[in-house]
Amino acid sequence: MTSTIISGPAASGLLLSAIATLMLAAALFARREDAGTARVAIAVALSSTAVWALATASVGRGVISELLFSAAHLAWLWATYRLFARDGRHQSLGPIRPVVAAVALVGLLQFALVVVQYGQVDPEAAWLVASILAVFRILFSVGALVLVHNLYVGASQQARRELVWPASALAAMWLFDLNLFTVAYLSSSEPETLLAFRGAVPLAMVAMLVIGLGRPRSEQGFRPSRAFAFQSLSLLVIGLYFLFMLLAYRSLSYLDGDVGRLAQFAFLAAASALALVLLPSRRIRAWMRVTLAKNLFKHRYDYREEWLRFTRTIGRAGPGAAPLQERVVQAVADIADSPAGLLLAPSEDGGLELAAQWQWGGLQVPAQAMGAEGAAFYTETQFILDLFAWRDGNTDGMPAAAVPKWLEDEPKAWIVVPLLHHGRLHGLVVLARPHHSRSLDWEDFDLLRVIGPQLASYLAEDASQDALGEAQRFDEFNRRIAFVMHDIKNLASQLSLLASNAEKHADNPAFRADMLVTLRNSSSKLETLLSRLGRYGKPAKDEPPVPTDIAALARQLAARHPQSARIEAIAPTPVLAMARAEGLEQALLHLVHNALEASEEAGTPVFLEVRTDGLHASVDVVDSGCGMSPDFLRHHLFRPFHSTKDGGFGIGAMEAREIVRAMGGNLHVESREGLGTKFVIRFPLAAATHPSDKSHSDNQKRVA
């Protein structure tokens, strides 16, 4: 057989491909710091492709160009293997080596077939060898696609972001060759249209490689999960694709002339695009994993791999690591292949509240995510709830409180997993449905029951560490109070000494002058200490609440502060509520003091507003200060030693709430960062509690 001269657009495409591949190869060779990695192998493969393109454009398709074409294919095979080897994955992935060796052997046999083909004089014998060569190149393309598929799907999520463009370039080349040589074999002729476009394939590869290789390399981790099974399934998928392409080509063979060639090219483009879109699909990969687990394995999970991933997720630490609550959700989501989840943690009223969200944006969870009855159900039964089955009517023995309204209405909600440790519920993990929905079986439930107590122990340990830290801070606080008491004792001793000396030297003018200075200093020190200690008083809990005019109390509190304090009382009429004047005054002092400090920079007043609704009386302490974040409101407010002020103890708000609760009232808070804060104290009205009492003059006198 003789060479076929290339001319026109096909030759131009080959020349452009040669220039582009040589430029990229030179750039990769120039990166000496990456010597020995996949960059060198890709540079060699690009150089081989450039030599083939130049030879084909200059001398046409013949024995030289065909030999160079096979050499370029082997170079790209080596580059694919180096992509496995760049982070050591080839050492832990045994099934890869036999596949690489088999594909390389098929590639080496092509050299002999090319020499035999072009050495034949008999045209029929030459076409027979050409058909065998086409079959070998089909097999080579199929094997290479299997390798590319496993290169991508077997890598971690982080590694896929770096491999997506190199893998796409390799897949595009071998998908084109698979279609090209299949058409050549079935038609027993050279498809001129496809051959003309073959010279432009390296241009597309260069574009994808430039995008992919331009990204900085980061640490890649490989998570081999039954790699041989994935390879087998990949080969099956490619085989089905090949069968579909064969049937489609048979249908297109009835078209002749330009229409037939155009139909072949359109089918090639559509088939390649379909493969490039479907193979990286997360839904397709999820379907493959489920299919493998159902049909090829005795157990659904690779328990060694699941445990390693679990420990990596929970043990992740450092400044950039997510909080423990988010890692707990992620650990359960990874096991169930769920894309998102959230954690509900116990609240003070016995119910559950939102503690953490992981990749589940836009979900609105109420302040009380689940009531005490629902939390008690999961504590007593340790029940793992499949919400899909529950929506289908499987609700036997489940109280309505176990599935709140917001959870029932969320279509993405899938599994509810309780986290119990020593019979105590430390949280509920709610998972979103995976990309490929499936039913839970006994193995899912067993694994989640094992993981749940383990995660609960981590949450319990974290809570214990927080409690220990608070105890240590309380100890530090007690030591500070001891210093304050020591100062008070010194002042008391000083005043006692001053009183005894006054009896002896009261007539001495110099003594009287010194005494006045000493009294003035001692008074200043005592006022400072008393103002500090006055914030930590406790109410007398054994005294029952009585009808108290809280409007008069608010006005007195505002009038007691100087004009510079900026307190305005809005309490025009008497409002009698069941409270204790001393305790309420102390709670209001805590809140007013915090409000004044929060609005000091803004220069705005603090308002005390008294309101009634027919059954309850409310006192609102409103400021326009810096406000508090939702995270601070949810996790830190009303907890000691958590304050938005530098050096603050965070005890004032906690003391105020305890005082109000001890009197039978409630304390609520609303705050927005940059807008201000409103504390609302509510008590039952005296008239609602004692409807027969027509006069409260004695109580008004008591307040006055």
Automatic annotation (TrEMBL):
Transmembrane segments: 6-30, 37-55, 67-84, 96-119, 125-151, 163-187, 193-215, 227-249, 261-279
One Gene Ontology MF term: ATP binding
Keywords of this entry: ATP-binding, Kinase, Membrane, Nucleotide-binding, Phosphoprotein, Transferase, Transmembrane, Transmembrane helix, Two-component regulatory system
GO biological process: phosphorelay signal transduction system
InterPro entries: GAF (IPR003018), GAF-like_dom_sf (IPR029016), HATPase_C_sf (IPR036890), HATPase_dom (IPR003594), His_kinase_dom (IPR005467), Sig_transdc_His_kin-like_C (IPR004358), XrtA/PrsK (IPR014265)
The enzyme's E.C. designation: 2.7.13.3
Catalysis performed (reactions): ATP + protein L-histidine = ADP + protein N-phospho-L-histidine
Residue ranges annotated for the Histidine kinase domain, each copy included: 483-687
Superkingdom of the source species: Bacteria
Name of this protein: histidine kinase
Source organism of this protein record: Paraurantiacibacter namhicola
